[in-house]
Amino acid sequence: MADARRPPPSRIAGRDTYTDRVTFTNVRFGLVLTPMVLPTPGHELRKALTADQAAAKVVRALEERPLTVDRWIGRLGEWVGILTPRFSDSVMYRYDKQRPDSAAARGEPVS
Known about the structure:
Number of helices: 4
Radius of gyration: 17 Å
Strand order of the largest sheet: 1-2
Shape: globular
Distance between the termini: 33 Å
Low-confidence stretches: none
Strand content: under 5%
């Protein structure tokens, strides 16, 4: 993860290539329902994108070329990370610890 005080590498590259008409877009996804994610306990109640919805975000980024494609919760999280990075780390740590690893993440065979 990039340091909250510095812009992401794509923003720096975008500045360097601005006059060459090369653009960069940060596409931020939440959870995307894929075969890898489905067996993970705790994700069944979370709102998630389908693969088609995620693909539509990528297509939007390619066609419209905005600086960022994300959701409001991602922007809020970014600001919390910038303004209070230790608090943000603490919240994300606790959130992550509430969800157990899947069998695949533990290296166990998955049926």
